[in-house]
């Protein structure tokens, strides 16, 4: 455990749900975990006991990626955890594959509606259609990373070949949805959950806070061990997401100190305000390091090892590149860096 983690409290200690089972962490709120085929090898999902228009059942919050293994685990949960009751709706915090991947299957399986933000719903519909190059791969991503200093032909060709990467994990999105927006109140099982929007990580990420239960389903906005990825992607090449993310974190400032945070990765924890302060400090330190590194012109590829000291596979490298651009752009839009484009298209940054 790193020193920052020592400042957080894990009420369930090392308890974690086994595959195909759940842990009830509060009245009617169940924690489940699904596998992911990445270095980040799991996602936390949530089942909340519900009642809609006189029918008892469950609300699912986030879905896992589309894999037969994950479907089989869901079927086990349906048999063993739902007490014979149906799924009444599916809520998705945002459009990343581990969160929305199986929404189409779950909604069809239970004839249940999808609830999420419009921005993320429309983005997921576009990316899963295969009609446009997504940020995960394809020609646009190839040009984006090439311009920012990735020049290894093999890596670039792999990125170019991943035009269907998103669609492979999100092959479809339900044809209809119910829109959730910042400030909405969602009643689940007789308890009110406040909808809190967040930006920088996804187009319009939604977290849910229940004052009665003192629970925050934070999605990816607040994680206990790792820093939420904040990236500039090829679809918005001059995006400036890092200030959006940090400003979004401040929207949780009014929540109670003893809120139990239910993150999408890692273990449930208490210490929301401490973790938010850590994130502000973390990014300020990274910005300082990037600014110092840019005393001489640097490409984004040059900056990646400044921010990430460990060896990265290609999947991790694409996230690292996006995050490095986000830090460079934050400094550029503050006027602390200048941006210059070389004759070969290479984008470099240098202290202003």
From TrEMBL:
Stretches assigned to the Metallo-beta-lactamase domain: 42-265
InterPro entries to which the protein is assigned, alphabetical: B_lactamase-like_C (IPR048933), Metallo-B-lactamas (IPR001279), RibonucZ/Hydroxyglut_hydro (IPR036866), Sec-metab_biosynth-thioest (IPR050662), WH-like_DNA-bd_sf (IPR036388)
Domain of life: Bacteria
Family annotation (PANTHER family): ENDORIBONUCLEASE LACTB2, METALLO-BETA-LACTAMASE SUPERFAMILY POTEIN
Protein name: MBL fold metallo-hydrolase
Entries under Pfam families matching the protein: B_lactamase-like_C, Lactamase_B
